[in-house]
Amino acid sequence: MPVALPPPHVLRAVYEDVNAHGMAPAARKRGVPASTIRHQYDAALRTLGLEDKRPRGRNNAGEAPSLTEVQWPVEDGTFLVFGDCHWTEPHQERSVAHEALLRAVPKIKPDFLLCTGDALDFGEISRHDPVGWQPSVRVKDTIDAGRLHLGELSDLAPKALRFWTIGNHDERHDNFLAKHAAAFEDEPGMRLADKFPDWRQAWRFDFGAFYALHRWHSGEHAAHNNATKGAASIVTGDTHKLRVTGREGLKGRIYGVETGMLADPNWPCFNYLRGKPTAWTQGWVVLTVRCGRLLQPESCEVLDGVAYFRGEALAGRPRAARRRA
Hints:
The chain is built from eight helices and 15 strands.
């Protein structure tokens, strides 16, 4: 027997809620499974002749939208971009780059906040074995840390739109539940996105002037390879390196951008390095789009324990640089 549909005014209300807030928040607001909201949204499109205005792309078969890519063209705006925070619990001490980011937000007044992934670490549910007697961290504490820190950024830039490219550490949450609790798929709150409804999540964002995703190429020339092979400006996290590579193309100048890491490389969650040196760099990036074109990216870099941006020390304690004999 077919399921009875709500009256037209309810379908329209569901339609507006989903367009404004997303599928999961709309389901939570109405206290019903996401599958019900999805069914009602589709019914609103079909019976009321409305347009699908969810800001997500469709696949090649024209099927329902997925997290693969969100298209959000920007003609003019400022993006404050950070990533690889690897937060584990609320009482974790902030890194120097993190302190600098908080001080920069009121000065920059960004139109967009963009996290390039791995905001959360979720080491406890990873497929990797622990390193020695490293203390375990509860999943709840990790989520609370994300809510705390992302909430602080939202409070500092309340009018900014918020985007989050899903990182390999972030996806540990949904992957674990999909493997061990698949029967609860449609229950509100099961997905990571349900816990952060103010941040729009996707694997890739197309902002018109550039694409953002957590990772693509790796290695020493990741930024260059991303821009060259993508034939567009590409912004990524994952490598924990802070680099900007510009090149000329047939459509003008494009950039490959690696956004560094907001985390401190000395945190316990990186004990798997076992003391090996890396090229990791604490920092973050500011991207400016004018007339639909990405301008030269600007970066905040932690150098000798101090976070510098546009020549100003935003956080950290300056100390004398080491001189070679």
